[in-house]
Fold Shikimate kinase.
Amino acid sequence: LSPRLQGCNIYLIGMMGSGKSVVGDAIARRMGNYNFLDTDVILERATGMTIAQIFEEEGEDAFRDAEAQVLDAIHAHVRCVIGTGGGLVLRNQNWSKLQTGLVLYLKVDPEVIYDRIRGNTDRPLLRNDDPLGTIKRLIEERRGRYEQADVIVEVKADMDVRDAADACVRAL
Ligand code: S3P
């Protein structure tokens, strides 16, 4: 492992459906002494609500506030691989916290993301008539941030979780 990685957190950023949770978990296993955490999962456990319910009942701003609080609570941990909600990078304060660790962007083509999440109803931002168009728009809006990551790993359609995790560990 590179010296900068010894004990520092690894933050996975990227769009919903890019595989942050499954690939992050696999990376943590490969690293041996790292734990995997996921901001959405922690938020759901803490509130007893699903992400979709939080959006519906409290609105996106409240969700973003809560998501920032979760990051606050976990960024002081060490030796964690942390999957972040796709829009978490947008707030400057969140972005500065990610800088305390190593930021890895899982870059996946919009069509591949669309194929993966098609028919899935737990992503409130994609519950509309044009989910593929929305995915493309969100990637464009977030590109500036995503591509500022320390490491960018391109995950192609033919790569499974194992391939993606291997590519990430090699890139670290
Ligand atoms: C969001 C991504 C979701 C979740 C929420 C908003 C986004 O997380 O936080 O639906 O703005 O891209 P995943 O990226 O883990 O799906």
Observations:
- The chain has one domain: 3-171.
- The radius of gyration is 15 Å.
